[in-house]
Specification:
The protein is built from 19 helices and 20 strands.
């Protein structure tokens, strides 16, 4: 059975709840969850009213939840009122009621609920357990305990993932369970579990009408789940890709790749993968992925702060590293081959060089002896410096930490200086390879406007926003500018080719990124 989409109605008033019911039907909810514990004036009449509203509004199934405040409920409703709500819901013939497992284990509560369910077989019981702080001590044991208590019930086991690596126990339960189960992780690190519950056959997954009406941390909106993550196209055979980084919430990559996958009618899905901390957690994440071949991950984009971590991981485990990535000392693309081995590449270098030559309308050889100022000495700067020095450009690296600039300059036979030397800037091409000016710090600039000149070409590798303060100030004095979207699209197109062996529509990619950045 395919996974159902449940959309919670979490209004304080009957009027607003009915508006949310209508909206839930419009976004394609399979199940409308009436979170009646949110009502300011909760009584049986209100519950009857809302159940009737759902039944009269469309084809959605009805789930009634009156959550105990000890497990994330709103309001301090008495146990007697809550049991009366569930009794009314069952007698009204709703499809599901959701009751906390810890409460259902109490005999006085079971005596009230079980006979009602036995006499109204249309209504199915969901037994839920939540931990809003950490993962369960043993989710498999909790699942077994729930099923032993009530074999016909659907266990709903939900906890907060403090790291993406906390999600794998949920994936294992979904993969191994032969019966209906609802399980996923809350929080930003658990976002992917809400999507992968669909691939792995979870009974249902939840999505809110909007951010404000979310009933749990990390809950996607129904529009995001349906449009960005292509809910209706997800199946158990779908191949998975994603961007590994921290942060990743701002990334345009999921929108870009999923749009291109859809255009090419590919059974592929691209996810944001929030992998926090350093090498150890990165290694644990990839180890978890590689040993679960049934997840069907085939490749990753890699961004800050893991480009060097990816390189070390491959070297320590016998993976293939292309010579260019080795020279740069960073990889931004991982491809998992048929044997489960990883291949690493760097598409940043080619992406930057294509952005420069395409916008300047020159060939790479024309950059020979051109004075270029590179601001920054991190991973992006390394990729840019490799490309420029390979064609013989005259590169000078500027960085806040002079020692870091000196190391990079020595490695690639360049000049270097601290940022305090920018007043003496003398370059035909200026490239910002720092994150200064990136959203949300859009009022920052790596180079003051008085150091710019009209005969310069100014290239900012930051793509969010597309028009950074640096580029705006360069345009004002008549300098030619190159935005970070050009590099982003070029490197993403190269990744798409590595992932799929097909050339993507670059114009479509740029359009999607631009639309993503224009959203509030």
């Amino acid at each position: 059975m395919s996974t159902k989409l449940a959309v919670p109605v979490s209004a304080k008033t009957i009027k607003t709840a009915k508006q949310q019911i209508e909206a839930a039907n419009q976004v394609g909810a399979d199940i409308i969850e009436l979170r009646v514990d949110y009502l300011e004036n909760l009584d049986i009449t209100a519950v009857k009213n809302l159940i009737a509203a759902v039944k009269n509004s469309g084809n959605s199934s009805v789930l009634v939840t009156c959550r105990d405040d000890r497990e994330g409920g709103t309001g301090h409703h008495s146990i007697d009122l809550r049991m009366n709500v569930f009794a009314e819901a069952v007698q009204s013939g709703v499809d599901f009621i959701d009751l906390e497992f810890q409460n259902y284990k109490q005999q006085n509560i079971r005596r009230k609920i079980k006979p009602l369910l036995d006499s109204n077989p249309k209504t199915r019981l969901i037994l839920s357990a939540h931990d809003f702080e950490r993962k369960f001590q043993n989710i498999s044991d909790l699942y077994t305990e729930t099923k032993n208590c009530e074999p016909d019930a659907v266990p709903k086991l939900v906890y907060t993932a403090n790291h993406i690596n906390d999600c794998f126990e949920v994936f294992d339960l979904l993969h191994n369970s032969k019966d209906d189960v609802i399980t996923f992780c809350m929080g930003e690190a658990g976002l992917i579990s809400r999507v992968l519950a669909v691939k792995l056959g979870g009974f249902l997954t939840f999505a809110s009408l909007n951010i404000k009406s979310a009933t749990a941390p990390g809950q996607l909106t129904a529009t995001e789940l349906k449009e960005l993550y292509r809910f209706d196209s997800i199946n158990d055979k779908i191949e998975l890709f994603g961007v590994i980084g921290s942060p990743v919430a701002h990334s345009a990559s999921p929108a870009v790749f999923n749009t291109c996958f859809e255009k090419e009618k590919m059974n592929r899905l691209y996810l944001p993968l929030l992998v926090e901390d350093g090498q150890r957690e990165f290694d644990i994440f990839l180890n978890n992925i590689l040993k679960r071949t049934w997840l069907n991950f085939k490749g990753f984009s890699v961004t800050i702060p893991h480009k060097h971590n990816a390189l070390d991981y491959a070297k320590n485990r016998g993976g293939f590293v292309e010579p260019l990535a080795e020279r740069i000392g960073a990889a931004n693309t991982i491809v998992i081959n048929e044997n489960g081995k990883i291949n690493l590449y760097n598409t940043d270098c080619a992406g930057a060089m294509e952005a420069i030559t395409e916008n300047m309308k020159i060939e790479r050889k024309d950059l020979r002896n051109v004075p270029v100022a590179v601001v920054g000495a991190g991973g992006v700067a390394r990729a840019v410096v490799v490309g420029l020095t390979d064609v013989g450009a005259g590169v000078k690296i500027y960085n806040r930490t002079v020692q870091k600039a000196e190391r990079l300059a020595k490695e690639f036979d360049c000049e270097c200086a601290g940022l305090d030397d920018l007043p003496n800037l003398n370059a035909k091409l200026l490239i910002n390879c720092t994150s200064l000016g990136m959203y949300p710090d859009i009022k920052c600039t790596p180079v003051l406007k008085e150091y710019l000149s009209s005969d310069m070409v100014v290239f900012d590798t930051v793509y969010n926003p597309a028009q950074t303060l640096l580029l705006k100030e360069a345009k004002k004095i008549g300098a030619k500018t190159i935005d970070g979207l050009s590099m982003f699209v070029n490197q993403a197109a190269a990744q798409f080719k590595l992932f799929t062996n097909k050339v993507p529509d670059r114009a479509l990619m740029r359009k999607v990124v631009s639309q993503k950045l224009s959203q509030p």
